[in-house]
Amino acid sequence: MTSFGVGLSREQKDEAAKIASELARIAKTGEVLPGSIVSRRTHCGRPGCRCMAEPPQPHGPYYQWTRKVASKTVGRWLSPEQAGDYQIFIDNHRRLRELFTRLEAIGLQTLEADPRTRHQR
Ligand SMILES: [Zn+2]
Question: 35 C-alpha vs ligand 1 centroid, how far in Å?
């Protein structure tokens, strides 16, 4: 029961406990990285290069980590080994955001269910 007298439902408490344990499990690894890892294959365009052959054999794949910061994309090139190693970091970050969204939903449901909440038109 919260201080304002509106309790979370049993289901919401169970959900929050599940989220908390998964959050803790991921946080303990410390393996969290925003952004995404993409692989790119390129064509240098030099005449006679294999990337211009028929059929073309593009260069790469080259791996790149990218992240949007204040609507600008920043990136780092990664070795193939790094790309493999860091994918779990990316996946963990995505999962944290999902878990956070679920926690927010519980808060929103609680606010909506609070009889003191005045609904705006
Ligand atoms: Zn080429």
Answer: 28
